[in-house]
Specification:
With 41 residues, the protein is mainly α. It has one domain. The protein is 95% helix and 0% strand. The longest helix is centred in the middle third of the chain and has 39 residues. It starts with a helix and ends with a helix. The model has no long low-confidence stretch (mean pLDDT 89). Keywords: Membrane, Transmembrane, Transmembrane helix.
Length: 41
């Protein structure tokens, strides 16, 4: 039973980590697009 808890905890951590990575990447892309627009003007 303890092993199942550890497995589910690690899985939750991985999902959270991937979600944070995705948000950071999409946020960086938005920042890059904003800086490109400023340079074009």
């Amino acid at each position: 039973m303890f092993e199942v808890f550890v497995f589910s905890f690690i899985t939750a951590l991985m999902i959270t980590g991937f979600f944070i990575l995705f948000v950071k990447i999409s946020g960086i892309e938005k920042l890059l697009l904003e800086t490109r627009k400023e340079k074009d003007e």
